[in-house]
Amino acid sequence: MTIMKVFSGKSNEPLAIAIAQHLGLSVSPLEIFVFPDKEKRIRVLEPVIEDHCIVVQSCTTPVDENYMELFFIIDALKRSGAASVTVVLPYVGYQRQDHTFREGEAVSLEVISKTLEAVGMDGILAFDLHSIRIEQIFHVPLIHLSALPLFAKHIKEEGWADGHSILISPDMGGIRRIKILSELLGDMPYAMIEKNRDLSTGKVTADKIEGASLENSYGMKRALIVDDMISSGGTIVTATTLLRARGVEEIAVFATHPVFSEAAPKLLEETPVEKVFVTDTIDLPKEKRFPKLTVLSIAALIAQKLQEAS
Ligand code: R5P
């Protein structure tokens, strides 16, 4: 019988521990030694011959460092005789560069996928990928999970499926996501904001909403903004400003990946939204947490999927 073992990089150890616990396991030991010049030496500390190894790593800031660590862990496991290595990559860094937007750009995500496959990754589990195009970039079996059912559950628990809420995608690219969530919530009305981002400055602007009308017979007083990730927070702030200007009284935000770069936590805390829900695809240090923030765990979902796939 193949034994399953869970290993973890340094980027999201709490999630790895929680996944292992749901599987009735502990995280297996790895030595991750950092030299003074910041190079790393990775060593597997227990036998893995013929084992099915799971490696948990979230490739967010410092994204390059986390990817390098992951490449070395996969290599170490394969050299030590692992039968297979499945990477749980809840947040896939570089996923927004999945094609060239302007002439002359690199397709960063393709470089990442080729490297992961070259070092021996046999399968990958990812969460709420930025676009469906990404599934084609990986050539190993991919399990693509979503936090949307978890969000639907929480929206119901908060009492927000009461006929007074509208789902809002802060950009047109989120239409697929918002339609799925609407269905999970018994066809909750939805609308999309037409957002523009200046590719050189990153500045976000928006002045148009398309879809269900905010002022129509539903009597919308609450907007639930749904996005795949919050990075600088600019998208959420722009959407909130527009929605408040259209008379929405209450706003909550649901985003799978709390990338939280720059001053995002401060910006979100100061923006007129009542609550922000994210998941633990990315481990948030104490200083990036703020009173309105709730972190929902995806550990049970991942463990269940790994069990089904084994
Ligand atoms: C964009 O297409 C994504 O879905 C997010 O809306 C975006 O990446 C969020 O970035 P930021 O928080 O920096 O505006």
Strand order of the largest sheet: 10-9-8-11-12-13-14
Helix/strand class: alpha/beta
Largest sheet: 7 strands, mixed
Ligands in the structure?
A: ribose-5-phosphate
Mean pLDDT rating: 93
Explain what this protein looks like in three dimensions.
Helix content is 30%, strand content 27%. With 310 residues, the protein is α/β, with parallel strands linked by helices. The longest helix is centred in the first third of the chain and has 17 residues, at 63-79. The model has no long low-confidence stretch (mean pLDDT 93). The structure holds ribose-5-phosphate. Ribose-5-phosphate is lined by residues 170-171, 173-174, 204, 227-235.
Which key phrases capture this entry?
9 helices; single chain; binds ribose-5-phosphate; seven-stranded mixed β-sheet; 310 residues; five-stranded parallel β-sheet; alpha/beta
Set out the fold topology.
Layout: E1 4-8, H1 13-22, E2 30-34, E3 40-44, E4 52-56, H2 63-79, E5 84-89, H3 108-119, E6 123-127, H4 134-137, E7 142-145, H5 148-157, E8 165-169, H6 175-184, E9 190-197, E10 204-211, E11 222-230, H7 234-245, E12 250-258, H8 264-270, E13 275-279, E14 293-296, H9 299-309
Parallel strand pairs: 1-4, 4-5, 5-6, 6-7, 8-9, 8-11, 11-12, 12-13, 13-14
Antiparallel strand pairs: 2-3, 9-10
Bound molecules: ribose-5-phosphate.
Ribose-5-phosphate binds near residues 229, 230 and 234.
Brief overview, please?
With 310 residues, the chain is α/β, with parallel strands linked by helices.
